[in-house]
Amino acid sequence: TYRKKVALADTVYIACMNGLWDAFRRTSNKAKFLWDDQLTDYTKRDADKFQHGWAEVGEVYYPLNIGSNHWVLVQIYLPAHMLTVYDSNQALYDDACVEQAMHPMMKMLPYFLLNVKRVTDRDDLNFTTTMKPRDFDVRRLPPNVVPQTTKR
User: Which CATH number fits domain 6-140: 1.10.540.10, 3.30.420.130, 3.40.1360.10, 3.30.310.130?
Assistant: First the structure.
């Protein structure tokens, strides 16, 4: 179905990540934050569901509900540390609201990935445990625009 190796995350994954936001935000040493096994299991290969592990893919897609009434599609482009939001109705919420909804993932995802086996071994992701990993950036695109990816 897909031209590239991608992975999909569902609303349970996003709800769990967002549910950890307050605890993560209060943690002084974010690199030592304890991630739930349920979350890290999402990154593992699941051949029964035709799911690639995050160590094998460049992109992860997930649905996000903004304001409890508007769904968008988010693409995590791992090598570029980029979260791209595909929004079918950009008039509903301004960029500030979308960025606020994306803020927990922007901050937590780099630290989460540091705790995922085999993902940190990838040369193209440039993760390190000795310094603060950089946040993921966010860009918002209308539904008919295909993003141009850049190599960093």
Answer: 3.30.310.130
Decide: residue 36, CB within 10 A, 0-12 exposed, 13-18 middle, 19+ buried.
exposed
User: pLDDT tens for residues 74-123?
Assistant: 999 888 888 889 888 888 888 888 889 999 999 999 888 888 777 777 77
Report the distance separating Cα 129 and Cα 114, nearest Å.
7
Where residue 81 falls (left for φ over 0; alpha for ψ -120 to 50; beta otherwise) is left
Is the pLDDT at 132 greater than 80? The verdict is: no
- On the CB side of 114, CA atoms within 13 Å amount to 19
